[in-house]
Automatic annotation (TrEMBL):
This is N-(5'-phosphoribosyl)anthranilate isomerase. CDD domains: PRAI. Keywords: Amino-acid biosynthesis, Aromatic amino acid biosynthesis, Isomerase, Tryptophan biosynthesis. It is an enzyme of class 5 (isomerase). It comes from Candidatus Limivivens merdigallinarum. The gene is trpF. Gene3D superfamilies: Aldolase class I.
Length: 196
């Protein structure tokens, strides 16, 4: 079981991640209250423990910008949250040799065509950073590793693992208190995942 702590947007968030050692961190490079610039992502990557992969989160971004950040090592993985195509997934992989995660919203779109995608991991979410769960039973028939996002936290992680067995739990808003990442909550999240 893996955990990604997403939406790090302050220097202290990077320090917290270095301390708690999640499997991945996420830098949001799309419009969001947690959005950071490419320059900030570069600075954060330099501060981040090099053993923790950084995932860049994009929504309908120009593939050239994504490829640039991957090639220079600012991010290690691209996570696509918009209307990107299978061709775009393949192009990024081919030009960088880096993994690509593709986010899908089972409540709003047909995920069937994506189940044979070349994406390294499919991520199922309820929306773009909305922080709420969806009907997980929609995922019970999926026979490839996937990530689960959307309202995941200490209160429901064990249930998520028991019900749908995700490869990766992606946590953002529930790693926060008052809208900011919280060290103790992050520590507890990682500790719990290590037990699952």
């Amino acid at each position: 079981m893996k955990i990604k702590l997403c939406g790090l947007f302050r220097e202290e968030d990077i320090r917290y991640a270095n301390e708690v050692q999640p499997d991945y961190v996420g830098f949001v490079l799309a419009k969001s209250r947690r959005q950071i610039s490419k320059e900030t992502a570069r600075r954060f990557r330099a501060l981040l423990d090099p053993s923790i992969p950084a995932v860049g989160v994009f929504v309908d971004a120009d593939s050239r910008d994504i490829i640039e950040l991957l090639k220079e090592g600012t991010i290690d993985i691209a996570q696509l949250h918009g209307n990107e195509t299978e061709d775009m997934v393949w192009t990024i992989q081919e030009q960088t040799g880096c993994p690509v995660f593709k986010a899908l919203r089972p409540e709003r779109e047909d995920i069937g065509p994506w189940l044979s995608s070349k994406a390294d991991l499919l991520l199922f979410d309820s929306g773009k950073g909305c922080g709420r769960t969806f009907e997980w039973n929609r995922l019970k028939e999926i026979h490839r590793p996937f990530a689960l996002a959307g309202g995941i936290g200490l209160d429901n992680m064990e249930q998520a693992v028991r019900e749908v067995h995700p490869f990766l739990l992606d946590v953002s808003s529930k790693a926060e208190k008052n809208g900011y990442k919280d060290l103790e909550t992050m520590r507890e999240l990682v500790k719990l995942v290590r037990k699952l």
